[in-house]
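Extended Data, record NADH:ubiquinone reductase (non-electrogenic)
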Amino acid sequence: MTRQTIVVVGGGHAGIHAVKAIQKRLKKVPFRLVLLDPQPAHVRKVLLFKAAVGESELTVPWSDILPLGTEFIRGAIHSVNPSMKCLEYRDQYGTSHLLDYDVLVLAIGSVVRNIDGDGFALSNIENARQIHGVIEGNIQRATTVLESHEKRRLLTLAVVGGGISGIETAFELNQFMRTMAKTVGVDPEEVQVQLVHSRQNLLPDGTEKLRQKLLEKMNRNQIVLRNDKIALKQEGGMLLLSNGEKIPIGTSVWTVGLQPNPVVQSLGLPFESDGRLKTDPSYRIIDSEGIYSIGDCANIVDPSNGKTDGMTCKEAISQANRLGKIIALDLIGYPAPKHQSIRKTFCFSLGTGDALVSAKVFGVEMIIENKIAWIIRKITWNLASFVN
Ligand SMILES: Cc1cc2nc3c(=O)[nH]c(=O)nc-3n(C[C@H](O)[C@H](O)[C@H](O)COP(=O)(O)OP(=O)(O)OC[C@H]3O[C@@H](n4cnc5c(N)ncnc54)[C@H](O)[C@@H]3O)c2cc1C
């Protein structure tokens, strides 16, 4: 067989695991492997909230991640020509280039939903650093303000969106704000982090036992849960809720969900009404020979139960590992495996040093917390980005 050019587009969690899996599985076929991404390094997206508390190491150099022999091209895809087996991308200077492929993997991920008003969406490292600056500024100002209402407002933060990302962000910022308050001579008890959640329950897919554990930890850390509340926007130092309520806040951080990368819709490939690429059960794009898609930009359905994968890192990594096998078998004309959804587990941090992990073992739910759970959480973050 002639040497195959395999191009993986997008070096997020799905893309880097796809590159590793392809390298590992392709034994019988000579190939050239290329990763295309506009970023100068891999971004550890699941840790964005760490940049909001001042941690700086959120990227990993491509050379530390990519297997030996993988080429990296810095650029952003903007169209595909499936009949010519060629894609077009722009480099960082805006110049267009063509790149031929035999196999193309699209893993261009998702973007954070836009928000109205003065708050911050936790969407990228720059935004996270801005959040850090604003919170620091508010706590500093609180040391000089005499008026008690204004002081309370400056020391109040709203995290909007009670998914895993919102929960992790609320705990981390709560810990950071209380520590910083103490450092500058403000009573940490005056800090208040509020988690504003549109639904009745946190962790709607979790068990009652897990929810209770989480609520206990929130109480212990003095994080205020405002459930069943829809936040509209931050305006003039107030968080406006749909029921007319106005909460005085210093700032707000929004973690209100992801949407597929809008570039999907300009590639000229079939996509679903939610903006995700249409795939078959082996991640092949419908009617597009040699093109596959995984991760947040792909609509992936388990053929055995009709369940659609969510936009999560753990699902993206499981798809990437299977994709290596699928491509290896497709190239030699053997039947390839089909997608299988992963088992539901929960693993999330509750500030530095604590976390909750829940999984079913022989049908019984096992919950791990405190230090051991925190170590497990750190391992999952590291595995997601190949960090030792
Ligand atoms: C703040 C936050 C916290 C999260 N926490 C968790 C968590 O705790 N657990 C969990 O399971 N999931 C979490 N997620 C979701 C998780 O990050 C995503 O599901 C996961 O990153 C999906 O991986 P991906 O590779 O498909 O997409 P992405 O990680 O979005 O990667 C896409 C890649 O494509 C590149 N790209 C973009 N456009 C182009 C283009 N035009 N051409 C070429 N390359 C392009 C990007 O630079 C990026 O490298 C979180 C998400 C956020 C935003």
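Summary. The two ends are 36 Å apart (CA to CA).
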